[in-house]
């Protein structure tokens, strides 16, 4: 079956390369990926998938499925296609979505013989933003309940195993006070900006009592309109991050207590909560990465060892990894170092090597799925490893 996958990828490579180029030329941010989601979903329909659009509460999400008449596992290939505000596809999601979709289509070519089901989940807004981090919605709405494992690969400088990522709760904080003349009648005003300042100071004091993995950073989004008017409304936006969901849940509560205290001190009322889906940390399943690496090696490529220490970014792939074995290895799109979310990365995402990486990535991902479908015992051991690693997180982490 190896030759069937490789032949399918080679035959359809130009189609998916052109899709990646078109998505790169039409950068769209979270909740506005109308062109990108449509071009991928339309192609998957042409490739024989049944596609449902506007799923999981996201107007630019889709669910593409093909099911064999024979029983077998279910694999979900995760597709991303959103761009960054102002800089475009500086994270390579034009490649990401095409890579996963071609991998799924090539695997579909053999799934009737193997048995089981192949899916592509079109997951908008990985970078966050309006109605962002959609993979959390896919989990919440039950799209992973019958999935055995999930696969994707992220463009980058080198080939590499999946890395850790921080859980992230993106929160908005709003305070409501009472306007008054700041000089003529200050005693009649209730200053909402004072409450925001108290929150900043409170969070700075909290840092001393947090574990080293926790990151809290934010901005004031509204602090008033005129210096001679007591601000009746003020707001801030923060990202709360930690290495594990269990730790972050405690951080979330601690910050909310600071917000409550600031409201009590200033006499304001408040709103506090997520402005988009929360993002979970990534649960690693090294045996699944090893299987991907084994397939990668067959094409003459190797993983570059990762530096000691986890990543400090966040991705909603972590939400998927909390419920099923999931990998997101890196796939090389540049011969020289590139930094994520930079102009250099954006240019690499449209380079010849970047576009050509779709062929390699699709083959390696599809063969990873093939080996698990062919070896039920291996799949079961990987699922067990994932369950054990998830349990370790839930048992051991605290502030």
Quick take:
The chain has 399 residues and is of the alpha/beta class. 42% of the residues lie in helices and 17% in strands.
Structural notes for this entry:
With 399 residues, this protein is α/β, with parallel strands linked by helices. The chain has a six-stranded mixed sheet with strand order 1-2-4-3-5-11. The termini are far apart. The protein is elongated and about 80 Å long. The longest helix has 24 residues, at 2-25. It contains eleven helices and twelve strands. The chain is 42% helix and 17% strand.
End-to-end Cα distance, whole Å, is 49 Å
Low-confidence stretches: none
Order of helices and strands: HHEEEHEHEEEHEEHEHHEEHHH
Helix/strand-derived category reads: alpha/beta
Arrangement of strands in the largest sheet: 1-2-4-3-5-11
Q: Radius of gyration, Cα only, in angstroms?
A: 23 Å
* Mean residue pLDDT: 96
Q: What fraction, in percent, of the residue positions are helical?
A: 40-55%
The total count of strands amounts to 12
Number of helices: 11
Q: Percent of residues in beta strands? A: 15-25%
Query: For the report, how would you describe the main beta sheet?
Result: 6 strands, mixed
Shape: elongated
């Amino acid at each position: 079956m190896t030759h069937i996958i490789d032949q399918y990828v080679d035959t359809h490579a130009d189609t998916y390369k052109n899709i990646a180029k078109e998505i790169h030329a039409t950068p769209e941010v979270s909740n506005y990926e109308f062109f990108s989601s449509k071009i991928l979903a339309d192609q998957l329909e042409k490739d024989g998938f049944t596609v449902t659009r506007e799923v999981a509460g996201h107007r630019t999400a889709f669910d593409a499925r093909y099911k064999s008449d024979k029983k077998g596992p279910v694999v979900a290939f995760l597709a991303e296609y959103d761009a960054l505000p102002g800089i475009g596809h500086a994270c390579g999601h034009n490649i990401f979505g095409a890579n996963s979709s071609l991998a799924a289509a090539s695997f579909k070519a053999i799934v009737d013989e193997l048995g089981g089901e192949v899916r592509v989940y079109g997951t908008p807004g990985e970078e966050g933003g309006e109605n962002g981090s959609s993979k959390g919605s896919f989990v919440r709405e039950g799209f992973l309940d019958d999935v055995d494992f999930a696969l994707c690969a992220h463009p980058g400088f080198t080939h590499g195993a999946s890395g850790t990522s921080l859980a992230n709760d993106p929160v908005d904080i709003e305070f409501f006070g009472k306007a008054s003349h700041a000089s003529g009648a200050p005693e009649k005003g209730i200053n909402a900006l004072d409450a925001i300042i108290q929150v900043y100071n409170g969070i700075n004091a909290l840092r001393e009592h947090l574990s080293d993995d926790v990151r809290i950073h934010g901005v004031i989004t509204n602090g008033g309109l005129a210096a001679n008017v007591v601000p009746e409304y003020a707001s801030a936006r923060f990202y709360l991050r930690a290495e594990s969901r269990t730790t972050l849940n405690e951080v979330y509560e601690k910050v909310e207590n600071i917000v409550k205290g600031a409201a009590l001190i200033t006499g304001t009322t408040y709103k506090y909560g997520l402005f988009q889906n929360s993002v979970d940390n990534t649960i690693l399943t090294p045996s699944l990465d090893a299987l991907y690496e084994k397939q990668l090696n067959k094409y003459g490529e190797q993983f570059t060892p990762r530096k000691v220490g986890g990543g400090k970014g966040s991705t909603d792939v972590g939400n998927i990894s909390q419920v099923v074995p999931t990998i997101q290895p890196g796939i090389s799109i540049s011969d020289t170092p590139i930094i994520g979310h930079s102009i250099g990365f954006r240019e690499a995402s449209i380079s010849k090597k970047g576009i050509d990486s779709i062929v390699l990535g699709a083959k390696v991902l599809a063969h990873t799925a093939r080996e698990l479908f062919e070896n039920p015992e291996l799949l079961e051991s990987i699922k067990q490893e994932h369950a054990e690693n998830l349990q370790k997180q839930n048992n051991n982490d605290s502030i």
